[in-house]
């Protein structure tokens, strides 16, 4: 009789193990199929840049996209003011972009390379970094923005 009970316990253990293995396989396949569906979705598009507000347009003296500010460099777009009060002027030469940022005076812990009475002026590194940008071109971009803001603040 003990032999019969041993066989029954072993049989139940094997049945339970097979059931668990089958359930694990079912769950794994379901997760795998869900992952494939997500992978085929296109990545979300970035939000459009904020509009060029009237406040920023007046501060920049009506600076418009297409204005050449240094040889080969023109204004691509102006964004802002943003939620933190910053204004971004994006310049472009072929496929390379550089941004000059206006931030309310004292709102950034970094020392600004230039400033006006009410605004600190910063810049981003060129994107992509090559070809190398002439220092004179960056100086011309910064001076263009600083002079416009100083005349209109």
Automatic annotation (TrEMBL):
Residue ranges of the region described as Disordered: 103-127
Residue stretches of biased makeup (Basic and acidic residues): 105-123
Protein's name in the database: Uncharacterized protein
Organism listed in the record: Plesiocystis pacifica SIR-1
